[in-house]
Write a structure and sequence with these properties.
- Helices cover 38% and strands 13% of the residues.
- By secondary structure, the chain is an alpha+beta fold.
- The chain has a single domain, classed as Glycosyltransferase, CATH 1.50.10.10.
- The strands form 4 sheets. Strands 2, 4, 5, 8, 9 and 10 form a 6-stranded mixed beta sheet that branches. Strands 11, 12, 13, 14, 15 and 16 form a 6-stranded mixed beta sheet that branches. A 4-stranded antiparallel beta sheet has the order 1-3-7-6.
- Strand 8 and strand 9 form a beta hairpin.
- Helix 4 runs antiparallel to helix 6, helix 7 runs parallel beside helix 9 and helix 12 packs across helix 13.
- The longest helix is centred in the C-terminal third of the chain and has 23 residues.
- The protein starts with 11 loop residues before the first helix and ends with a helix.
Length: 592
């Protein structure tokens, strides 16, 4: 969402970035670490044509200063759409897997150039970052006295009725509102927010309990997941729908908070009922999944399951009424698929099996010969700023439940086509960073590009896409293990491992701006952003990231503005879906 009240740190970061950008040769690398079993690489760049003389790169052990690995860099490439004249060469050291701290070193005409330091070790990203992700969510809790007092009796928009909606996580470093989803009026852009975060934590606690125990954070992960589930239960109305949003209006008076539907420019309405695509499906999925733990938070596991079943029954009858355009689309399909699948796993009941099969079949029907999904019933390609990988993730979760080979095969083929497309569209142009590309409709024509179009159904909303990148990394690894399984490595093909690894490396500093978007790690973090009631940027939170060029309707070009007269939120603001998808991705990497 648009933020206007951000207190920014001094502009030293911008100066550092600009100064460094004019160095003759730069090594762009993930500034945190690489999993020993996964893909590893970096990019060298120059504006002055010096890269022809680089015949080799070296890995140097930071502790011993010894060269431990050497290889030739890749062919020169240019991305003229981003920085005309700049030359890139990709370097790869995936074959090196010895644990330690390293730097990439180049010798260029008698000058030594070194990269930022990084670690290589087993499950590096999970070990180094998951504890801080949990810390981030704990600090994002809407648990300050002002919030608890206001949310215990928060008023419904257009009504005198109040409800108890204490709990949940504040949405972003500049916004203490709480969302199941937003942009509902745009119909194709609704993001999964608090329910996705809850599901991501539940997934991590189930998938890698041994590693979380080793890190001494399993109990913390479970507590945070239960905390999210408690909020989802409180958000279930008497009628059976979930309340979508508690909006602060960016007003320091906690009494201003309302349960609302939200349109552009902070215009609020009484359309606060969640459709499947507006957080309803993922809310059901999170509650059904966590109910299987037989653990209690503020509510019992039986209450979690009962709430999921009641919400599902209600949406089966009323979903179209809550869709702003009165039509279901691909978002309803993948969100309902997640909800039905988790209820099927939790209960074994045929009602949920049948709905899951129907929704999986709907996704199969939306697949085009080109390999991208159609979002509507006509010609709009599916693209998404934060949940681009969720159709694949939902189908993979469904395949875990589905024992019928005929039904599994349909989902299998759909996932395979989607992954093949992701690799193909990403590699069809010079793309040394491996940034995930996509197809979208612009002026009636399907176009492929790096970033989401800025001219879209929302009328105003575009921002950095780190959640999208992490969601596609999750999809590549989860889907790859289903359709391209291999022994060793991360369980799938080298191409999909590299694709996933490049998205996460981009987030952690391996991007053209050398910005590490996870706060508290790497060399270049975002300026601190302050919000109300003592909230703000937190260690382990991930900022929005890089966008297409400001002013380009089709999202072409490239932009990153740590300062922009109040609009810097598009690039620098932390947002809870980024960390959720990052958690899903690194959980999948660490899972045996």
């Amino acid at each position: 969402m648009k933020r206007t009240r951000a207190l920014l740190a001094p502009f030293l970061l911008a100066i550092a970035l600009t100064t460094h950008a004019f160095a003759k040769i730069i090594i762009h690398v993930n500034q945190v670490g690489f999993d020993a079993r996964g893909a590893k690489g970096a990019i060298i760049a120059s504006d002055v044509g010096e890269l022809d003389s680089v015949s080799a790169f070296f890995l140097v052990d930071v502790r011993t200063q010894l060269k431990v690995f050497s290889e030739k860099p890749g062919k020169p490439e240019q991305v003229a759409e981003w920085f005309p004249g700049r030359i890139y060469r990709r370097i790869d050291f995936s074959r090196f897997n010895k644990s330690g701290r390293y730097q990439v070193v180049l010798n260029v005409k008698g000058t030594t150039i070194t990269s930022d330091e990084f670690q290589i070790t087993d499950n590096a990203l999970a070990k180094l970052l998951i504890p801080s992700v949990i810390h981030y969510y704990n600090k994002q809790r809407a648990d300050k006295p002002e919030e608890l007092l206001a949310d215990e009796h928060v008023m419904l928009y257009g009504s005198e009725k109040t409800v108890d909606l204490r709990g949940g996580w504040d949405d972003a470093s500049g916004d203490i509102s709480k969302y199941f989803s937003h942009l509902a009026y745009a119909n194709f852009m609704s993001q999964q927010q608090i329910p996705l975060c809850t599901w991501a934590m539940t997934n991590a606690a189930e998938r890698i309990p041994g590693l979380l125990t080793e890190l001494n954070v399993l109990d913390s992960m479970k507590r945070e997941a239960l905390y999210g589930a408690d909020y989802i239960v409180r958000s279930l109305s008497e009628e059976g729908y979930f309340y979508m949003t508690i909006f602060s209006y960016f007003n320091p008076d906690p009494k201003a908070r309302r349960v609302v539907g939200l349109n552009a420019n902070s215009v609020t309405t009484d359309k606060y009922q969640c459709a499947y695509r507006e957080g309803g499906g993922m809310g059901i999925a999170a509650l059904a999944r966590i109910s299987r733990w037989k653990m209690d938070g503020a509510f019992t596991s039986a209450q979690y399951l009962a709430a999921a079943k009641r919400a599902f029954a209600h949406l089966q009858v009323n979903n179209l009424k809550y869709c702003d355009d009165g039509k279901e689309n691909i978002l309803d399909d993948y969100c309902a698929l997640m909800g039905a699948t988790e209820l099927w796993l939790a209960t074994g009941e045929n009602e949920y099996r049948d709905e899951a099969r129907k929704r999986a079949k709907n996704l199969e029907k939306r697949m085009t010969p080109a390999g991208y999904f159609i979002a509507n019933d006509a010609n709009r390609p599916f693209w998404h700023a934060s949940d681009a990988g969720l159709p694949i993730v939902a189908l993979c979760r469904y395949m875990e439940a589905e024992g019928n080979l005929a039904f599994r095969n349909g989902a299998f083929i759909t996932v395979k086509k989607a992954l093949d497309y992701n690799l193909r569209v990403t590699d069809e142009v010079a793309n040394p960073f491996g940034y995930a590309r996509q197809s979208f409709l612009m002026n009636g024509t399907v176009k492929n590009g790096f970033f989401i179009p800025h001219e879209n159904e929302s009328g105003w909303w575009w921002q950095g896409e780190n959640a999208r990148l992490a969601s596609l990394a999750s999809a590549a690894l989860l889907g790859g293990r289903q359709v391209y399984p291999v022994k060793g490595g991360l369980g799938t093909s080298e191409k999909l491992m590299a694709y996933a690894g490049r998205q996460l490396s981009w987030i952690l500093g391996g991007n053209p701006y050398e910005a590490c978007f996870m706060y508290g790690f790497g060399r270049n973090n975002m300026p601190y952003m302050k919000s109300m009631y003592g909230h703000g940027s937190e260690r382990g939170g991930i900022s929005n990231g890089v966008t297409g060029k400001d002013g380009n309707a089709d999202g072409s070009g490239i932009d990153y503005k740590p300062h922009d007269n109040g609009n810097e939120w598009r690039w620098t603001e932390q947002w809870i879906p980024h960390a959720a998808w990052f958690l899903i991705a690194v959980t999948t990497m660490a899972q045996d």
